[in-house]
Protein: Anaphase-promoting complex subunit 5
Organism: Pelagomonas calceolata
Amino acid sequence: AGFAHVSCLAEQAKILFAEAEENNLGLKVKQARWRRWSWCSLCEQQYHGVVKCALGWACWKTYVGRPEVHNAHISAMGQLGNCLGAAKHHEAALSVKETELSILRRVGAREDRMLVAQTNLAITYQGLGRFEEASRMIGDVYSGYLRLEGV
């Protein structure tokens, strides 16, 4: 196992994504660059533990100043919520994920994006032992995907 400075990983992710934005690179490139906030570029594994949490907070700190309708702002919120959940800080994750879903609804985000946010929120409900709410939400997500696919 290697070691890296979290601040260096965060700076690298920030620079790569900024470059993709400034040069109007395509969606796939932007998504690949965004992925650097949560995946190692060398071993292609997801960060975990304190590194995952530190990068989640760094991501949030980097993009929190952007307008709430901006994709990076909303994605940073998702990143933070997921890292808090992974660290078993379910109450904090719940607050972040509920806010993320509320923003997505308010800005009229695509249905598939909202379904991902609902799935993440259901996972948080499960982590909190709120199984009925989790089950209900997963059912809504399933129905939503069926609608999207025209089934």
